[in-house]
Amino acid sequence: MTLDTMTLDATTRAPGRRRALIAAVGVAAIALPFLVNNYVLSVVTLALYLAYVGQAWNVMMGFAGQLSLGHSLYVGLGAYASAGLFFHYGIGPWLGVWVAILLCAAVGAFMGVLAFRLRISGVQLSLLTVAFAELARIGFDHIGWLGGPGGLFLRVADRGRVDLLGFRGPPALYYYAALALTAGALGLCALLLRRRAGFYWRAIREDEVAAESLGINVFRWKMKAVILSAAMTAIAGVFFAFYYNSLFPEQIFSFGRSIEIVLGPVVGGVGTLFGPIVGAGALVLLGDGTTEVMNRLGFDVPGVKQVIHGVLLLVITIYLPNGVWPPLARALGFGPKRI
Amino acid sequence: MALLEVDEVSKSFRGLRAVARASFDVERHTIAALIGPNGAGKTTLFNLIAGVYRPDGGQIRFGGQAIGGSPAHRVCAAGVARTFQLVKPFAELSVLDNVVVGALHSERTVAGARVRARAVLQRLGLASKEPMSASQLTLAERRRLEVARAVATRPSLLLLDEMMAGLRPGEIDELVEVLRSLQRDEGITILLTEHVMRAVMALADQIVVLHHGEVIARGAPASVVRDPAVLDSYLGEDALAGAEP
Asked: What do you get for the CA distance between the two ends of chain B, in Å?
């Protein structure tokens, strides 16, 4: 289609170089909390959080080709489920996360059955995902048990004490949790892409009719992608609840949040393994980096982050429609492998 | 018992009869051609067999098992693979991965599917194109890729929908050779629709002629092309001279 779906020549791949780079990044990531201050750590944690949600979204869109513009739904449901259990019953996040996963998987499955049985696809499917998120945003305003529009607040963590069981502690704890989530999702996606699921999802993404003619139960495999994506996003919601400690329906389910989730993979490269990570990193570092530099220079420019995101998106859609990762991968000598 | 039995099958779209009580059989290890003018219902009949549409009436049996109305992925599981008139390659996947998707139907592991895919690509003369993305192939190569992908599922019946359209005579002869060898060496039964009579005459053991959704003639190629009804409705007198209608 374009030059970025380049020739894949097995002989030009450089697995040694790839492994060395991943190891270096890994060591740097583990050492980071000892090297930087809490502000920088919070920015990187945000980037990792967005990278993880981006990877979860990428399973549905990047691999299976089903565009969700309402992924804030699963973040919100996961966050409210775990926070509600903790707030009212003292049930910790390690148990709450399973409730969140089950809830989001069930909601994802419901939407999947509705959409795929009624043969809703493309733009209509995207609108359906938006509608579900909007429904939750408005609905949760009326659930007094979860704080309604006034918000649900968890007691702020004691920064001095590490409480692994309650997922409470210093910023480094959340940083490592976000790092583990991102690395775990990367590993899972890498594994899935190499297996039957990866081939079947990409076939469905490219052409559903052809995929079905080759014996693929398209309905079932699309359901698997939606449910996995929803379940992964639920975990992000639990992280969000215990990291930020305050939940408002207007914020967590907002359309803007859904777009924020989509932005990382789009900038990095939809359907690629490292795209969501690279994209989230680029967006957060450029956005917050510029804000910080401006502040240091004595300019207070509210909204500069959004402007930068907008410009970045514009430039990338025009000049790098497949995202920054594919050309970056080639420049790093990873070989012309698309993922 | 014939491998494929199409028995009094009908299909209408909003009152328009696309296929009307069509009946024919395809014997195991033979090549049958479905011919007829544009709009005769060939592709509709194909889609009925492949599970894209559900017949309004009649029976389609494959290996004695009723498949009419089954979804396409089940028809494939029963042993029927197909190509599309308008090719549908997985454009962003490599040629090899395209065929691996098909091979995964019959292989348990990706590694096994890759071995099978390489063997099929070799057979179809696409081995050197393996690492290219499917979107970089020429039309003739894409047609062969469709065949490769379908054959990789290990079908006993292969449905080929207008494989030759838009190809040069040299490319047609090559493809005819490939199909012949598939039928001979892999024991695959083939049902094809085709306008290119040069390919039909070279390949078919049996010809079925469709006109206005009805089967107006069927039998050995030599006799069908002399059938007055066929000459009148479709082929015209020039057909026997080998010209493309």
From this structure: 34
What DSSP string describes A133-173? HHHHHHHHTT-GGGTGGG-EEPPPP-TTS-BTTTTB--HHH
Please indicate whether, in this complex, the C-beta atoms of A203 and B110 are within 8 angstroms of each other: no
Across the interface, whether the CB atoms of A1 and B135 are under 8 A apart is answered yes
Locate the chain B residue with the closest alpha carbon to A219.
B73
- CA A273 to chain CA centroid, Å, is 12
- In angstroms, what separates the C-alpha of B16 from chain A's closest C-alpha? 24
Domain boundaries along the sequence of chain A: 27-254
The DSSP bridge partners found for residue B14 are: none
Distance of CA B174 to the CA centre of its chain: 16
- Stated pTM of the model: 0.90
Residue whose C-alpha is closest to residue B100's, from A6, A191, A271, A216: A216
B chain contacts of residue A6, beta-carbon cutoff 8 Å: 133
Tell me: the pLDDT tens digits for A70-83? Answer: 999 999 999 999 99
Q: Which residues contact A232 (CB under 8 A, 6 or more apart)?
A: A52, A55, A56, A59, A185
Residue B136: what pLDDT?
94
A212 vs B: CB within 8 A: yes
Closest chain B residue to A200, measured at CA: B101
